[in-house]
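#structure-requests
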Amino acid sequence: MTSPETVKARRPLLSLPPTVLGLGLVSLLTDFSSEMIYPLLPLFFTTVLGGSAAGLGFMEGLVESIASLLKLVSGRWSDRLQHRKPLVVAGYSLASVARPLIALAANPWHVIGLRVLDRTGKGLRGAPRDALIADAVEPTRRGEAYGLHRAMDNLGAVAGPVTGLLLFPVLFGARPLGGGDFRLLFGIAAVPAVLSVLVLLFLVREAPRATAPRATGSNTGAATLGRPFWFLLAVLVLFTLGNSSDMFLVLRASSAGLHVRDIYLIWALLHVVKTALSTPAGMLSDRVPRRFLIAGGWIVYAAVYLGFGLASSAASIWWLFGVYGIYFALVEGTERALVADLVPASARGTAFGWYNASIGIAAFPASVIFGGLWTWGGTARGPLLAFGLGSALALTAAVLLLLQPRSLTSNC
């Protein structure tokens, strides 16, 4: 753990390397674009295009799993290439092109295809980007760096729905939102998407690596990454089996009577909480065993998911979305910092590839099962069955993490 003297000597956040700050700005703009679309996509998919909850679950599980396989491949590539940045640029560029094209979708399968392209871009960029951050910052500020990156990402996720909400009276007046209006909003989301790629190309420079790239034939298996890493990954997969797509939270909010404008606001609330708490949580994870914060976040998740299953009023949905943001703040940056702690510097891309791939692959059965339970149980029992399963798996994973081997208790 970091000593109190080191903690006191910490520099301000803006003294973090330009690579970290630049990648944070890229994520901010990318989420600005995606979160103008994401909160309305479940409603567009089901009400405008005629898709079902089960179809939504299939789509989200499928696209995340496809992207996750690419995360594994791109992570290993980035350890073997001289530079990681080209993979990051390719990933952000593909997603920035594909995402706004959802405005042209005429049936559910068009959305599924474009979501595959969007998530393919995420698959290419995720592991190399996380490795770039680890390469650029010293271990004693690793949690802080990932926390700041997640905070900037979440700030973009606030700006997206707030902008969409502000556009309502300007573009649509007081009339109900129709299919054409959805498409116009999705098209406007292309602007910050293009800006994110320009920032990445011209403002983000790759920091020199502490170790040389791995040779093509070098070992990148379990022996290299170590048993503590694989234990962590196994518990993460168990948790993820109960962590379905957040699109179901939008459907839950809609079923509780929230208007489209309210959904934009409630989505912004979620990301305000994430933005406010991610950096402090990341800094805290540099001072205490990271597993405590992760397990605590999973316990919060279990309580929130049970609440979503039992919720019967719009007011309770608002509270649950706010508390849900605490889970993200505790977990998102801390998980990445712990992954970087547990593996050799020369295998970081590979480790983040396995991390992202495993979570994404597990997201496929998670979303399919969740959507299936929701549809099978109907409007009366479906949400409780689906959210209840997620709550139980999260609580089980938290207990296992707290009982984990001693090798996970100390930070680098």
